[in-house]
Amino acid sequence: AYERRFPTCPLIPMFVASDTVNEYKSEDEAIHVIERRCKLDIDAPRLLKKIAGVDYVYFVQKNSLNRRERTLHIEAYNETFSNRVIINEHCCYTVHPDNEDWTCFEQSASLDIKSFFGFESTVEKIAMKQYTSNIKKGKEIIEYYLKQLEEEGITFVPRWTPPVACKLESSTSHARRPVSPAINIPDSATKEGLNNKEILNTSSSPSEPTAGTPDDKLDADYIKRYLGDLTPMQESCLIRLRQWLQETHKGKIPKDEHILRFLRARDFNIDKAREILCQSLTWRKQHQVDYILDTWNPPQVLQDYYAGGWHHHDKDGRPLYVLRLGQMDTKGLVRALGEEALLRYVLSINEEGLRRCEENTKVFGRPISSWTCLVDLEGLNMRHLWRPGVKALLRIIEVVEANYPETLGRLLILRAPRVFPVLWTLVSPFIDDNTRKKFLIYAGNDYQGPGGLLDYIDKEIIPDFLGGECMCEVPEGGLVPKSLYRTAEELENEDIKLWTETIYQSASVFKGAPHEVLIQIVDASSVITWDFDVCKGDIVFNIFHSKRAPQPPKKDSLGAHSITSPGGNNVQLIDKVWQLGRDYSMVESPLICKEGESVQGSHVTRWPGFYILQWKFHSMPACATTSLPRVDDVLASLQVSSHKCKVMYYTEVIGSEDFRGSMTSLESSHSGFSQLSAATTSSSQSHSSSMISR
Predict the structure, then answer these.
(1) Which segments of the chain belong to CATH 3.30.530?
(2) What is the pLDDT of residue 620?
(3) Which residue, 298, 300, 398, is CA-closest to 341?
(4) Confidence bin at 188 (pLDDT 50/70/90)
(5) DSSP per residue over 194-261, as a string?
(6) Whose CA is closest to 139, among 96, 183, 99, 109?
(7) Where are the beta strands (DSSP E) in 9-161?
(8) Burial 88-106 (b: 16+ CB within 10 A, else e)
(9) Most buried in the list 71, 298, 594, 693, measured by CB within 10 Å?
(10) What's the N-to-C CA distance of the chain in angstroms?
(11) DSSP structure class, residue 681
């Protein structure tokens, strides 16, 4: 039955084709090994496929059938991107040791993502989603082909026996075992999971958990009032998980409503729900999330520029949260607050949402366990696709998905512009399938028509900025002043660390002491991207290439190779004895950047080797026509105290021999063209592009 899925299987749409590469059969026909090259059409975002430069991926699968031992071993590994992603899968069909009428199935897999164009987390999500769906589909496929065989009159396969000569020699010591009847796969035999074990039984299936005795049932009025409709099985799962927590968990036991969210998120699989609930409870205790509403006050920057807030409730009684994402300066908030404060604020919003659900449950007299979110995208542009900002957003989504499952009842996305599909392509793989089903997206003014906003929100509370009559107190957002930006060192002084990594690094640049970053490139045509802000002073940005690696910076107090200051690090890599043109070369024209400017850009490397990004102190040139300094020169010199500059920077390499796209594929890393920026200039060359936002 398994062999019938080749060369292609209509039940697996992603399985496009397969070719036999090698085949081996032993003389006694006990061993049969087939190696195939399989072509797959992976369900991945179009943008990711474009950046990777491939439409299909290829796997090599080796099937080893041992009729003597009655086993079938299946091994598979990826051929495409094998230098970046390593996937190994192993499946095994065996006879159960205690009952030969049972066929055991075991499956395991490993995934190791070394690098993937900056989309490592996205690829991991896609791979896990694909793998889980394949496990669910496996039982259905094998049943399909078993039924097909039965319709053709094949109800069993004769047991392999050795050739006549071998049989005569071994007949005195071996008794033939009875032939197994046809395999029948019961519905209840499937178990989902990354390490998957199944027992396929012809006579009986493993017993299902009982729905619970009358002694462990919940009060019917309590269920109706606070939990909603539950089947006896779901009620039993809730009771068992709560009892387990009371017996084993040291700390605050969550309410039934919260436990129920984790059970629903895992389709009432009690083992899976227990695992993610325990992880969440540990996380909450570690970061004191239970006390965040009482002990943490949002910074004034958030209160002024975070364009989101609670606004009444929808027609189902769910609390309504309004987010004017298009009016928000995402980059400015990350620069001024850092990822920690931004994440903490989002967590406080979720904690407030849980509190409001409890209140509305009491007010409306029925269980309300989730809220509705209304997102207005009016004003969304390429600035919101700024690469570090998108990364911070994805990480926030991951934390929320893991710790607040089943809290989003409905998401209304209004006035989606043309750039929205690009953002959705990047974000959607990180969102659970059940959550995505709750999304309703309206372009332009479609939300005003039939099936629009009025179906979900009463006319009296539609916000004024959407054409309603209700005044909405949500801040209007706007551009965060750059005077509020802080360095990475300043942002590290947070009392609670929810993440262990930061996107940005800060550096000090002195007169005669530039700051340099080394990037090693193995594959030509890789892409180096950068994004930095000049916080203080004027600098010159350079990119150099060298075939040999510079010496690591010395950290002695006399040699000025490595300096640590309160405002950031200073590292010098280019040795003073090196000569430009002999030991290293300049691959881009110098770019002068003024104080307060933001610069984003990229460079497609021509050669492998070592690339050095350099931020150098910019000395104002003397006036050629007079010995008197200009007024601008005097003002500039007053601004740059002690000949010191400060920059905050972020770099990333999209390196790949598989990269076949053009620079337009990297639009999401540019934040220069923005309706929020006062002015924008750009400079581009044949192998690079840079943007400056003033």
Answers:
(1) 1-150
(2) 66
(3) 298
(4) very low
(5) SSEEEEE-SS--PPPPP---GGGPPPHHHIIIII----HHHHHHHHHHHHHHHHH--SPPPPHHHHHH
(6) 183
(7) 15-25, 31-40, 57-66, 71-78, 85-95, 103-113
(8) ebebebbbeeeeebbbbbe
(9) 693
(10) 66
(11) E
Out of 360-369, 509-518, 628-637, pick the least confident.
628-637
pLDDT value at 580 more than 60: yes
**648-675 burial code (b ≥16 CB/10 A, e <16):** bbbebbbbbebbebebebbebbbbbebe
On the CB side of 31, how many CA atoms lie within 13 Å of its CA?
7
**Tokens, residue 473:** 């107190």
Two tokens, residue 551: 């010496």
CA separation for the pair 495, 209 (Å, rounded): 46
Which tops the pLDDT comparison, 531 or 62? 62
CA 298 to CA 477: how far, in whole Å? 15
Residue written as tokens 């005077």? 483
> Which tops the pLDDT comparison, 687 or 381?
381
Question: Does the 503-549+568-618+640-656 domain belong in CATH 2.170.130.10?
Answer: no
Q: Which two tokens stand for residue 442?
A: 């309206």
Tell me, what's the pLDDT at 52? Answer: 60
CATH of 218-286, one of 3.40.190.10, 1.10.8.20, 2.40.50.140, 3.40.50.300: 1.10.8.20
Instruction: Tell me the torsion sign for CA atoms 116, 117, 121, 126.
Output: negative
Q: How many angstroms separate the CA atoms of 274 and 178, rounded?
A: 43
Give dist(CA 546, CA 614) in Å, integer: 13
Alpha carbons within 13 angstroms on the beta-carbon side of residue 676 total: 26
Is residue 31 within 8 A of residue 24, CB to CB? The reply is: yes
Beta bridge partners of 308: 323
CATH 3.40.525.10 residue window(s) in the chain: 289-481
13-67 pLDDT tens trace: 888 899 999 999 998 889 999 999 999 887 766 555 655 667 788 889 999 999 9
Please work out, in degrees rounded to the nearest 5, the angle formed at the alpha carbon of residue 49 by the alpha carbons of 329 and 17: 155
- Which of 337, 593, 341, 342 has the alpha carbon at shortest distance from 485? 337
Place of tokens 């802000």: 533
What CA–CA distance (Å, rounded) separates 603 from 685?
Answer: 9
Give domain 1-150's CATH number out of 1.20.120, 3.30.530, 2.40.10, 3.90.1600: 3.30.530
With a cut of 50, say whether residue 686 has pLDDT above it. Answer: no
d(CA 319, CA 311): 7
Is the model's pLDDT at 463 over the cut of 50? yes
Q: How far apart are CA 532 and CA 568, in angstroms?
A: 14
The fourth-level CATH superfamily of domain 289-481 is CRAL-TRIO lipid binding domain (3.40.525.10)
Lowest mean pLDDT across 155-169, 478-492, 495-509: 495-509
Specify the pLDDT at position 143: 86
Angle of helix 330-364 relative to helix 256-265, nearest 10 degrees?
Answer: 120
Pairing type for strands 408-416 and 371-376 reads parallel
Q: How many angstroms separate the CA atoms of 167 and 429, rounded?
A: 57
